[in-house]
Amino acid sequence: MCGIIGTTGAPDTCALLVAGLELLEYRGYDSAGVAICDRATGGLWRARAAEHAGSIGRLRTLLADAPRDPGASIGHTRWATHGRPTEENAHPHLDCTGRIALVHNGIIGNYRPLAAGLDARGHKRSSQTDTEVLVHLVEEEVASGADLAQAVRRCLAVVRGDFAIAVVRAEEPDVIVAARRTSPLIVGITASAGIVASDVAAALATTRELYALGEDEVATVRPGGLEVVDLTGRPVEPRRIEVSWSVQRAMKGGYPDFMSKEIHEQPQAVRDTLLGRLDGSGCTELDELEIGERELAGIERVQFLACGSSFHAALAARQAVEHWARVGADAEVASEFRYREPVLAHRTLAVAVSQSGETVDTLHAMREARRAGARVVAVTNVVDSVMAREADGVLYTRAGPEIGVASTKSHIAQLALLQALALHLGRVRGSLPAGELERASAAMSTLHLAVADAVGRGEEYCRVAERFAHVEDFYFLGRRAGLPVALEGALKLKELAYVRAEAYPAGEMKHGPISLIEPGVVVVVVATRTALWEKVMANVEEMRARGATVVAVADDGDEETAELVDAVLAVPHVEEVCSPVVNVVPLQFLAYTLARARGNDVDRPRNLAKVVTVE
Ligand code: F6R
Question: Does the Cβ of 366 fall within 6 Å of ligand 1?
């Protein structure tokens, strides 16, 4: 959580820092800060602001007083973990001399004993953060004669936890030292500049010559120069990143916010994600899996691991795998799996699903699955992300960069890709009935058109949603493929509109929660035509009988459903296994409309961050 930017040698340091921080704000926005080596004075200049979503704006004002002859500089946008989101806890943190500055993304697990040692040795710490210990440890190494890179290496040798850091020092005004363990960090150079950033988008304004730092690697970045070593100081060949998208794609492109832009990019995301992986004639190609068809055919269980919206995609995938591949599948929240001492079946395929590829719970669950003997595949949207690097195989969703904190297009791309994986497993295992492979792959290769149809009804969905703009109690119900959709609809409403929304299997309401149903409650039900439609509608009757207002996600033209409910969000019909990809669209618009009606920032909902790199 938190974003890091660092620049050296570039002509417009302050503009680069601010632009980088703005692009990184999705990683957290509790505070922002910069530290700049001042060539004129030989000192270090720092500015910090802790005004939640206004921090970068305030920082821009403070930068009017920045050094006129800047050297190496670092910036940070924070999502608070240790210490409240105040200015004193904002990064960069300084050592006791005020001549070394450090920014950090991650958590230092052993910061308490390290802090106790530093305090005993007379250091003055000025924040409640775990991060600050690092800069004082670097200070001690520098005081004993090390240069900045050596000092960082030695300091990291005693640190436990996850980190990406960037450090500057007044005495070495060209140099940024960067290092990482688990948390991501990209470095890059041009002939005359160097860049450090938490993600590719923030680095692209400087250069396309970018490298992903590996675990426990330390980079020294200078104008036009890059050296990477491991913690023992041995040189390491930096790994080049292929960048296939532009900064422009990461911008709003004329939409009022990233969320609506990203909702409208969903048809393209599905199309791009399935491109070349399925065709209408029954061919499935998932070569990047790196797990041969023979081995896949022998898989005895599939274990999906994920958090949040990715978990909902995994729940839908579980059904698709059991339906098409006829192999047992489970989906579990990664933070629970990790500590459960899981016992995995022989020949388990573990599939870690994560938009960012960095969510620390999912990363550790993936590692746990591997320890328990599973073959591990990562499904992620971020090329070269930590999970992508660590998994045996990786399948990329091709949704493009997602900036809105609430996932939309990446979730839909996950759903589509996981369905393709299920169909692929069905093909290699020979478990599909005759003709099903051709039929299903043909249906999936036109899925983006159904998504485009649903997205095209956005205004209609918003009009329906406006009727419920001030409702405070929502239930979301679904059965089978409708349940992950209901869960995702409720999550979107909670995180964006800050409204209580509970999702339940429709058939489970009568076992308790139905006592909460009364006039004023709105029940949103996924009621598209499946074999369970009649049962779902019987559950709807139970809600209506207790005074609830019912809104149904229903097939376009389904008059019978429309007559039995109070409002309809009509979607194009697709077969049940594929239906979450389409049925979730109106629920995204519902959450969007309610959030905007309440004046909420849809791109940066409170208390959340896009990338959750803490437990
Ligand atoms: C909700 C949302 C989160 C993420 C979750 C996992 O809109 O975006 O629930 O889905 O934090 O993130 P990833 O997929 O990056 O592992």
Answer: no
Those residues whose C-beta lies under 8 Å from the C-beta of residue 511, and which sit 6 or more positions away, are none
220 and 351 assigned to the same domain: no
Q: What is the largest CA-CA distance in the chain?
A: 80
For the chain, what is the total number of helices (H) and then of strands (E)?
21, 24
Specify the pLDDT at position 516: 93
What's the pTM? Answer: 0.79
Report whether residue 310 contacts ligand 1, using a CB cutoff of 6 Å. yes
Whether residue 503 is found in the same domain as residue 383: no
The residue to mutate among 198, 305, 356, 397, having the most atoms of ligand 1 within 8 angstroms of its beta carbon, is 356
Q: What is the pLDDT of residues 139-197, one digit of tens each?
A: 999 999 999 999 999 999 999 988 999 999 999 999 999 999 988 899 999 999 999 99
Q: Is any atom of ligand 1 closer than 6 Å to the C-beta of 356?
A: yes
Closest ligand 1 atom to residue 306 Cα is 16
Q: Is 319 helix (H, G, I), strand (E, B) or coil?
A: helix
pLDDT at 183: 85
Same domain, 377 and 459: no
How far apart, in Å, are the Cα atoms of 315 and each of 324, 344, 415, 496?
15, 18, 9, 22
Which of 205, 234, 249 is a domain's end point?
249
- Cβ–ligand 1 distance for 355 under 6 Å, the answer yes
Question: What pLDDT sits at residue 249?
Answer: 58
The catalytic residues are: 2, 610
Domain count, the chain: 3
Please state the φ and ψ torsions of residue 148, each to the nearest 5 degrees. Answer: -60, -45
CA 102 distance to own-chain centroid: 25
Residue (of 195, 188, 227) closest to 210 by Cα position: 188
In this structure, the answer to whether residues 265 and 212 fall within a common structural domain is no
pLDDT of residue 22: 93
pLDDT the model gives residue 186: 95
Residues of the chain with pLDDT under 50: none
How far is C-alpha 435 from the geometric centre of its chain's CA atoms?
37
Say whether both 517 and 393 belong to one domain.
no
Rounded distance between C-alpha atoms, residue 29 and residue 607, angstroms: 9
- The reported pLDDT for the residue numbered 610 is 79
